[in-house]
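Preliminary data (for renewal application), 5,10-Methenyltetrahydrofolate complex.
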Amino acid sequence: MTKNGAAIIDGKAYAAGLRERIKAEVPKFQEETGRTPGLAVVLVGDDPASQVYVASKHKATIAAGMESFEHRLPADTKQEDLIALVEKLNADETVDGILVQLPLPDHLDEKAVVMAIDPDKDVDGLHVINAGRLANGEEALTPCTPLGSLMLLKDQLGDLSGLNAVVVGRSILVGKPMAQLLLAENCTVTMAHSRTRDLPDVVRRADIVVAAVGRAEMVKGDWLKDGAVVIDVGINRLAPDPGKEKGRLVGDVATAEAMDHVRAITPVPGGVGPMTIAVLLRNTLVAASMRAGLDKPKGL
Ligand SMILES: Nc1nc(=O)c2c([nH]1)NC[C@@H]1CN(c3ccc(C(=O)N[C@@H](CCC(=O)O)C(=O)O)cc3)C=[N+]21
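Predicted structure:
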């Protein structure tokens, strides 16, 4: 709590707890199936940020007691070779989850690659089959960042029924699935985006704000209703100060200003980012359990 009573939502701590609960479920899966859940991560090219993310996914997967298979391909990999790898992983019984790190180099067709993933191994929840299942209210593998964001919201607010939720951003990765999840929780959902008129006034009506636009500190403090709960999905690196090597990481919300208005807000870093990785492990265990014909692990 700060002096005005606004809470910083500790996504890092929540994610650590979730990873512990996953780790405790893995031996039960092993006992019932005689095998270990496995996650395959495919990285094409040598983008430094992607390298860091893939390394931390690998570490977290091993720490949870699961198998991690890393596939690093050169930046000039051909579409057909990438699809062939995905198909090999689809057929591999030791692989429960497949994640192709995005973005892919420009010459590759991202959509076609995602569509080649077996929907039951699609731990990113990006295949149209999973997007359709989510929209239809069916059991689906659900994109990690929105699901992690929802977990933080429910932890903070309990029942979300009837609350006004505004999602800023309409990406397939975050905005659209986030809106579906909030709708399924009986929120009144508004999706705002780059063409929305009077965005500050739209955001002012929200009890819940999810900012996922990828523009540093775009959502200002005075756009927020007093007592709103804010999930800041943005990860933007500012230009470095003179003499510094790396700029500061900021979200899509002007956090310091927001603190004068909100009931609670996720920080950047330490908010949604760590949740994304924990939910990836959760989705891998869920995918493994479903494929093995077991019940979905509880409490995850
Ligand atoms: N197929 C696919 N699935 C993804 O889920 C996916 C992807 N591609 N491509 C890249 C983005 C990015 N992403 C993050 C995961 C964790 C943090 C994270 O843990 N961030 C920390 C620290 C960040 C830092 O210091 O750089 C934090 O926010 O506290 C951030 C970003 C997953 N992505």
